[in-house]
Amino acid sequence: MTTPFVSAHTMFLVLVSPTGQYSIWPAVLQVPAGWQVVHGVACRQSCEEFVAAVRVDLPAAA
């Protein structure tokens, strides 16, 4: 049995938590409470590229 996290045909979202943590999340699953969609519905590669671009722009943690 495959999960939506590893299925080749799953579409994804990029979520951000209230603390600024990013997550690539299967679009078929409910968005967890408190998290916001910031990218998608898109293929996993597109979501990974979005997160990589955002991470370059993030300031270093104090």
UniProtKB/TrEMBL annotation:
Gene3D superfamilies: Structural Genomics, Unknown Function 30-nov-00 1gh9 Mol_id. One of its GO terms (biological process) is siderophore biosynthetic process. One of its GO terms (cellular component) is cytosol. InterPro entries: MbtH-like_dom, MbtH-like_sf, MLP_fam. SMART domains: MbtH (SM00923). Residues 3-53 form the MbtH-like domain. It comes from the Bacteria. This is MbtH-like domain-containing protein.
